[in-house]
Amino acid sequence: MKNRRDSKIHMIPLDQITVLNPRERGKRKFKQIVDNIEHLGLKKPITITPKETTNGTENYYLVCGQGRYEAYQLLGEREIPALIVHVTKEELLLMSLVENLARRQHSSVELVRDISAMRERGYTFSQIATKTALDVSYVRGMIKLLNNGEERLLQAVEKGKIPISVAVTIASSDDQQIQKALTDAYEKNVLRGKKLLAARRLVEKRKTDGKGIHTGNKKRNGDAVSSDKLLRAYHDETARQRTIIQKSRFCETRLLFAVTALRRLFDDENFINLLRAESLDTLPAYLATELHGESQ
Q1: Which of 99-108, 176-185, 217-226 is the least confident region?
Q2: Distance between CA 169 and CA 135 in Å, rounded?
Q3: Are strands 46-51 and 59-64 parallel, antiparallel or unpaired?
Q4: How far is residue 294's CA from residue 58's CA, in Å, rounded to a whole number?
Q5: How far apart are CA 296 and CA 292, in angstroms?
Q6: Which distant-in-sequence residues (6+ apart) come within 8 Å of 57 by Cβ?
Q7: 211 three-class SS
Q8: Contacts of 136 (CB under 8 A, 6+ apart)
Q9: DSSP 3-state assignment of 192?
Q10: CA distance 281 to 101
Q11: Are 98 and 133 in contact (CB under 8 A)?
Q12: Which residues does 243 contact at the CB level (< 8 Å), separation at least 6?
């Protein structure tokens, strides 16, 4: 059923309008709306729909234009230009959600909750994407992140640190798949430089601190970074690096021994024929390269 719309602009008293689905907005953005209306006037009327009443008075629900409506209130106006549409309460909530999505000034968590609300009302991913001018894969991805409690990834998508496709991969993959996704994003020029480093830090942060973003007071007693702690951390890291170097030298020595021994064995024609007869005449790439290099 198509919505019935009155093309005539009506002057409606502000106190007869109710905001059914209010949204918060940034102070800077709201100030811009107020300043524009104060100096240039209202360029576009708000949209309202009649509200059922029992006392016979005309009252309305706001469909679109919360910022303009609140700006008129702040400026001390009593009436506001409005277009009247006749829609059901469900259609009203949907139209309000679509307007909020179109503003693109919301957080990712708020965005996906609005999308989720539409999903709960029975709309398919394709229908939501059509009504909100978003990509179907984006809609699916955002809902998946919300359902998995991935607040940290949602925030990263909102701030433009990582694309939604990479965020979804991180949420549903193991470490190896995540690294492959980051590599693919780099090769496709999606993540480069600082963004790639930020994405890697995000992956590590999510691994150590979890999916959610915990706000609140952190314990400070005993957690302060002191010079002693830094020194201990330095010594621990130095010891770890020293152990890695020792292991690498040990492995290098054993490989050198193996290469030397194999080179001598390969000088024996009978040994080579025996290997061929047993189909054992291939070597790991590293040993083959080293043997070939020594024989040059």
Answers
A1: 217-226
A2: 17
A3: antiparallel
A4: 96
A5: 6
A6: 16
A7: coil
A8: 125, 126, 129
A9: coil
A10: 65
A11: no
A12: none
What is the reported pLDDT for 277? 83
Give the integer Cα–Cα distance in Å for 83 and 60. 11
The per-residue pLDDT for range 94-148, each reduced to its tens digit, is: 776 666 655 544 455 566 667 777 777 778 888 877 766 677 877 787 777 777 7
Q: Are 263 and 291 in contact (CB under 8 A)?
A: yes
What span, in angstroms and rounded, lies between the C-alpha atoms of 262 and 130? Answer: 67
β 17-18/59-64 pair status: parallel
Strands 17-18 and 46-51: unpaired
Sign of the dihedral defined by the CA atoms of residues 239, 242, 248, 249, in that order:
negative
Both tokens of 22, joined, read: 């209010």
Question: Tens digit of pLDDT for each residue in 133-180?
Answer: 677 877 787 777 777 777 778 777 767 777 777 787 788 777 777 777
**In 3D, which of 43, 49, 64, 39 has the Cα closest to residue 3?**
49
Tokens of 222: 């005993």
Nearest to 157 by CA among 172, 138, 140, 180: 138
Residue of 26, 91, 32, 104 lying closest to 63 (CA atoms): 91
Q: Are 33 and 80 in contact (CB under 8 A)?
A: no
Q: Which residues contact 55 (CB under 8 A, 6 or more apart)?
A: none
pLDDT in tens, 230-268: 667 767 777 778 788 878 877 777 777 777 777 778 888
Give the type of residue at 66. Q
Mean pLDDT score of the chain, rounded to an integer?
76
- Six-digit token pair at 11? 């002057």
d(CA 62, CA 22): 9
The vertex-168 CA angle with 164 and 170, nearest 5°, equals: 115
Asked if pLDDT for residue 280 goes beyond 60, the answer is yes
